[in-house]
Structure formats: structure tokens, C-alpha cells
Amino acid sequence: MKFYWSLLLCFNVVLLSAQNDGWHISTTNKANYTGIVVANGRIGVLPSEKPFKTKQIILNNVYEKASQLGVSKILEGMNFGNLDISIDDEMVDETNIYNWKQTLNMKAGSFTTSFKFKDKATISYTFYALRNVPYSSYIDIKVEALQSLKIKAIGKIESNDLYKNPISTFRILKDLETTMPILQTVANTEFGRHTVATSATFIWHDINSTREHQRPELHHNKVSDLDNQLSFEKSIKKNNTLEFAWTAAQCTTQDFDDPQNESERFVIFNLLTPKSDLLKQHFDLWANLWEGDIIIEGDLQTQQDVRLALYHLYAFGRGDSNLSIAPMGLSSQNYNGHIFWDTELWMYPPILLLNQDIARSLVNYRSDRIKKAQEKAINFGYKGAMFPWESDDTGEEATPAWALTGTFEHHITADVGIAFWNYYRVTKDKKWLIERGYPMLKEVADYWVSRSTKNADNTYSIKNVVGANEDAPNVNDNAFTNGSAITALKYAVLAANELNIPANPMWQDVADHIKIHKFPDGTTMEHSKYAGENIKQADVNLLAFPLNVINDKETIIKDLKYYEPKIRIDGPTMGKSALAAIYARLGDANNAYRLFKESYVPNKRPPFGALSETATGHEPYFATGAGGMLQTILFGFGGLHLTDEGIVQKQPILPKEWKSLTLKGIGVDKKTYSITH
Question: Where do the Glycoside hydrolase family 65 N-terminal domain residues begin and end (predicted)?
């Protein structure tokens, strides 16, 4: 244990050496590099450590089949983020630069790389996934000449060979005196599900870009249909500066009937809007997001870890989208970009407290797909709505058929219902409850009534499920499945009462009599045949928090002590965060802080501290883990509770390692809660 904490301390010191405040994370170290995505809820751009290079573009809610006989997979877009920059005919690359530094500015939603090229130039460039123009990205570039030099810049649209029938063009569009140079590639996805269109152009900030004779001459080079390039050359005198931008937009038939023309319009908008105005809109939208914030005084490293978690949830979501967030958000194609319980149980609760607009999109994503959930229930012989374990744009089951979770992990339907009632608890939006909330809760409750089996002793069992602990497939009366069903059924009754609608009496009857199995000493059993095996992640303990199905202190402590040692060391990060929140709510700050740190610090990856799902994994950024650690702070140390009267603070507690904790912008009233020793 001493060696473990020494490693963590060393890692934190390395990170802090390049940081100086709670909003910026910087690095000068490329070793074991794991990047940080810039995203706006529609597009995720993952910059590289290599100069002017981008690893990938991820398009939210745009799916193609993973293989001819496979399930859907979130689409890796055409890469518009790779530029080739040459100075005096020498390519800028890793071998001829020094003083390299990268900085994530979480407050501004930007990512900056800077370095010196030999003794000739100081260069910096900043990536933006524009929050105000969400299908587009903007790379702002600055070259300061240390001696007179000639620069050549090549912007590219690159497509991998999974794109079919590409059409790569360059056109100069004209309207009166305005000229608009547009590089463009349009192609079909591998199996023809979508057409993807990417447009791009250069912008010169110190030149009236609408007047063609004042701009550097542009050269088009179609290296291939999959490598479309646009370039310019310009001389810069010593001590002078060249500032320009490369902007691109990517649209698909998922969101547009005519993605080709729409992508052009977004690029034209960025081209002809002054940089100061365009970026101010982006900054203002990020400032609005940060009205919901968590401020930790006395522990800079934890402050940055927490802000990085919140930054990612904000970057991956949008309040105007009715889209959800996948476990890895827009940072990778991991888990095929599908939507799991990760959203409703882990990411959604902190978002619900801090940003109700994004929270509304997350629940509306489900109600927009309720028809498919109803069809699935019918197809498996049940009533109501039965949500898929993995969901994509269609709302049908997207789990690979070989995975038992897709056929048997049914608690997702209860998780959805719980999220819906909690949205109403916080917002008191009765119109939404009438139109979306209650119809969902009714269907969820009807499902659980039909899914339950009545026993001879008048109790109810839920048989043959995969629970939150996925290491135990096809069991009866899984604790979390049963606890979440109880909770969802009770919430349906509350929703009916709120609207003066008669509730189905079976909802309450089943909720009151679903079995939760116990060992002889009163410890909760993880399922009816559980015999003490190790588990993948928290299951029983979730009945204490967030479900509050188990609420007596003696049982909660028994369950904590029994199950903590049984969680696999390679299990996902959010398991221990739930235990940390429970200990905090019990008033045990020491165990809460210990588990809080254990829940995520081993999963941090250099140089920025991106979270992987497990302590041995390397796929960033695990948004589910971000949700778990934020819940520990909000619902644990912060003492916030979701109740039928709204958000209520009860007995907050502060770790001795922190001077104070401030929760800002909580709920619809944007309240501030401050906790000190």
C-alpha cells in the first residue's frame, strides 16, 4: 500500500509541475501520451502530441455497422485536423522543434500546442470544437518569425478506406464581391448507411478574406479521392507574425437531408464571421456551462481532477440535442459508442444538479425511443417498455448477440425510469412530466409488473437476469435489479399521484413485495444463490446509494464491509466511488476520502490525467468514471439529496485534506452550497 501511494504521489507531482491553476492542465512531457479530446456534443476531436496532427474525429449519434454481420458502431469521421506546415521547405515535425508544450483550457473549451521551430519561428495553434457551430471545428494558428522565412501550409480532408465512392473537389463559391474557397470531400460510409460531407477552408485574420486578390494564392491537390488538400505559401519578415485559421465542418445524413451543402454553409459562416465574434460566442457558451461548478480549496490536484471530469461531461453533452452520452463520450469508438446504464446511473445525476438543459437531452433521448422499447417488450413477451442494454440512434438492441448482457441485463429499464422521476424532482416541470415523464414511468412500471413472478408466499421474484455485477449471469433476484425495479415502481406511483391519475395498484403491490435476499447475519445477498464470489463492480451497495432501498445504518455498514474487498481490482472505476459516497453520507470522511481517491487516481493516464475505465486500461476518457467521482463530491461530501421536495442538503462532510468545498449553480435556482471545517 505504501508503494501504491508513493506512485500516486509521484504521478501527481509530475502533473502539478506543469500546472498553476484550477482551469488549465499543461504538459511538456510526451512519454506514455494519452490525449484529451475537445468536443461540443456533436463532434469530438482528439489532438495528437505530434505537431499539427489529429488522431481522430468522432461523430455523435452517427452509426455504421461495425462489420457486415455486426452491430452498429459510432462513426469515425473524415479527419480534417491534419495539417502539414513547412518553413523554408522543411516540414515541421517532432525532430526539429523544441520547447513543446500543450495546454487544455477547460474554462474556454480549447486545447493549445506551442513550440519553437529551430531558431526560425515560435508557433502555437489552438483547437476548438465550436460550441456555437456544433458541426464544425476551428484551428487557430500563429507563427512568429524570428528571422525572415517562407511558410507553406497544407490543409487536408483525409478519409480512411472504409469510406466508399468519395468525391473530392475544390471550388471557389461567389456571391457579388464575396469569394469563398471550399475544399470538400463527400463519401458514403462502408455499408452505405450514411453520406458524409466535409468542407474546409483557410482564414486569414489580418486580411479581408472576402477579397480574393488580398489572400495568398490557394492551390488544390487531390492526392487521391481519400486525400484532398488545399495549400498556400507566404513569406514573413523577421519579427512579423502570421495568424490564420483552418476551419472545417462535417455533416451526415443522420442529421441533414443535404449534408454536402450544409457543411459548406457552416464553413462559410466561420469564414465570414470575425474571429473575435465567432470565438466570443464559443467562450460565452462555455461560461454558461461553468455556472455549474465544483470548487475545492486547498487541494489543487483534486480540483483539476474534478474539473477535468466535469469538463468532459459538458463537452460530451448538449442541451439542444436530445442525445445521450456513451461511456467514452466522444473520445473513442470504444463500446461502439453505444448508450448504456452508464448515462442514467452515473453521468446523469451530477449533470442533473449542475445543468438541467443537458440533463433534459439525456432523458429525452430515451423517450424519443420509447416506441422501440415497447416493441422489444412485446417481442420478449412482456408489457410496457423494455429498453436495450446497448442503445444507438435507432433505439433497438445494439449489444452483440454473443454478449449475455444484451438479452438479460434488464435493470437498464428501471434506471431509465429513475432518471425520469429525478428530472421532475429537480425541475418541477409539470408540462414535461405530462408529455414525457409520466408516459415513460407508466411504461417502465408496467414492464416490471409483467417481468416479476409471484411466489407462493406472495413475494415477487425477478428471474434470469444479469445484474450490475456482470460476472454473475442468469441469476434470480439480483439485488440491484430488484432494488432498481422497486424504486422505479414507486416513482411511477408518485408521478401518477402528482398528476391526479389513478395508479395501477399492482405497481405498489409488486414494489412492496419484491424479494431482497439476506445472509443469516443480515448482510444483503447479491442474488439468490450468491456464495461470496468476487464481483466486477458495486451491486448490493447501490441499494444504499443511490437507491435508498436499504437505509438503516447497521445494514449499510455490513454491506460495505462485506462487499468492498470483493470488488475486483481490475473492475471499473465507478464502483468505489459509490462506496465513497455512502461512507460520506454516514459521516465517515476518512473512508470516504480513501475510496474517493482509490476510485479514480489509479485510472489516470499521463500527461493530462485522462481517466481509463480500469486501472490497467488505456482508453480515454471514461465519462462513467467522471460521473461516479462527481457523485461522491455532490451527494457524498456535499451532502446533497434528491427528494420529492427537490434538492436538499443533509449533513455535508469535508475531508481533512480540503480547506473548503463550494458547489455552485445547483438546481434550477442556481444555488451555491459552501462546506468548511
Answer: 37-208
Between CA 325 and CA 92 the distance in angstroms is 36
pLDDT per residue over 518-569, tens digit each? 999 999 999 999 999 999 999 999 999 999 999 999 999 999 999 999 999 8
Q: Which fold has domain 343-387+407-676?
A: Glycosyltransferase (1.50.10)
Sign of CA dihedral 20, 24, 30, 31: positive
Task: For residues 562 and 667, give the distance between their C-alpha atoms in angstroms, rounded to a whole number.
Answer: 35
Q: Is the peptide bond before 335 cis (omega within 30 degrees of 0)?
A: no
415 three-state secondary structure:
helix
As annotated, the active-site residues are 470, 613
Task: Give the integer Cα–Cα distance in Å for 92 and 84.
Answer: 7
pLDDT tens sequence across 34-68: 999 999 999 999 999 999 999 999 999 999 999 99
DSSP state of 433: I
Cβ neighbours around 622 below 10 Å, total:
30
Q: Where are the domains of the chain?
A: 32-288, 343-387+407-676
CA–CA gap between residue 352 and residue 347 (Å, rounded): 9
**CA–CA distance, 197 with 214 (Å, rounded to integer):** 29
Q: What architecture (CATH level 2) is domain 32-288?
A: Distorted Sandwich (2.70)
The alpha carbon of 7 is separated from its chain's Cα centroid by a whole number of angstroms, namely 28
Amino acid (one-letter) located at 405: T
CA 141 – CA 158 distance, rounded (Å): 20
Output the DSSP codes for 338-367: -B-HIIIIIIHHHHHHH-HHHHHHHHHHHH
Asked if domains 32-288 and 343-387+407-676 share a fold, the reply is no
pTM (whole model) above 0.70: yes
DSSP state of 550: S
Distance CA 259, CA 254 (A): 9
Query: What length does the chain have?
Result: 677
**Enclosing H/E stretch for 671:** strand 671-676
* CA count, 13 A, side-chain hemisphere, 593: 12
